[in-house]
């Protein structure tokens, strides 16, 4: 595992993600090592011996750079983060996300946080200072076996659910990110998961489709071969044909939308 300190020239990036004007990524790389992660495409910029999930570079001057960039940037909604997890394990040491939140809260920038870590609860004192802040946890399943197969080094589902409950208790706008949906696998517990989110009373749910065009497909298929060999053939058939995949996902969306309506959940799809 490689943990490295680096200096960045810029930290506030224009975002193409719906609902966010800017994104801030305090770290380059992510130690969660999720097999499906679309950010693997960033490996193209790095030496070939680096493996996704085995390195993270901390942008130790990010708060200083942010202060300078905010002075010359138009006000807008900021997403923490788009191609890393702002609360991965090294954040406990470097506290870059916390320092960034301190800056943003002093100017009351509209904020979106997305993470897989309950470390976000550490910063409740700062998040409460924002007049407009949405905090989300990624949960694609309630099954820890699925989590271990596809999110091997991410915090447990239990810890993420508990974090959402604490956010709700603190009266923070809380959302769940069901992304990406893993074909067939996500169907196994989707009703239980949505029911659980309904009981927590999350403010809304966002659902995202699995992207297999970012160099991640071999890793996804390897996970199926190791953990779910009996359905590997079905998955290969779905993911290898764009029309088949689109048809499968369209049917799954109908099922999920109907479940959400039944549970009175505010739910939207990215795609």
UniProtKB/TrEMBL annotation:
Location of the Radical SAM core domain: 24-193
Source superkingdom: Archaea
Record-linked Gene3D superfamilies: 3.80.30.30
Keywords: Iron, Iron-sulfur, Metal-binding
Native source organism of the sequence: Thermoproteota archaeon
Entry GO MF terms: catalytic activity; iron-sulfur cluster binding; metal ion binding
Name used for this protein in its record: Radical SAM protein
Protein's UniProt keywords contain Transport: no
């Amino acid at each position: 595992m490689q943990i490295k300190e680096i200096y960045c020239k810029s930290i506030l990036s224009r975002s193409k993600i719906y609902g966010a004007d800017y994104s801030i990524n305090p770290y380059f790389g992510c130690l969660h090592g999720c097999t499906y992660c679309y950010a693997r495409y960033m490996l193209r910029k790095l030496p070939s011996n680096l493996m996704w999930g085995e390195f993270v570079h901390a942008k130790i001057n990010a708060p200083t750079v942010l202060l300078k960039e905010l002075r010359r940037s138009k006000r807008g909604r900021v997403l923490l983060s788009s191609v890393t997890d702002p609360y991965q394990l090294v954040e406990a040491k470097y506290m870059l996300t916390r320092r960034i939140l301190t800056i943003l809260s002093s100017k009351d920038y509209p904020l979106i946080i997305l993470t897989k870590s309950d470390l976000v609860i550490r910063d409740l004192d700062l998040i409460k200072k924002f007049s407009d802040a949405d905090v989300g946890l990624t949960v694609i399943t309630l099954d820890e076996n699925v989590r271990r197969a596809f999110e091997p080094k991410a915090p447990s589902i239990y810890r993420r659910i508990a974090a959402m409950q604490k956010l709700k208790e603190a009266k923070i706008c809380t959302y769940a990110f069901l992304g990406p949906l893993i074909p067939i696998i996500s169907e196994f517990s989707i009703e239980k998961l949505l029911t659980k989110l309904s009981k927590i009373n999350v403010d809304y749910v966002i659902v995202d489709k699995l992207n297999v065009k970012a160099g991640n497909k071999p890793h996804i298929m390897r996970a199926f071969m190791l953990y779910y060999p009996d359905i590997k053939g079905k998955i290969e058939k779905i993911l290898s044909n764009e029309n088949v995949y689109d048809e499968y996902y369209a049917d799954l969306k109908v099922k999920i939308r109907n479940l959400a309506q039944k549970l009175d959940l505010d739910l939207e799809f990215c795609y």
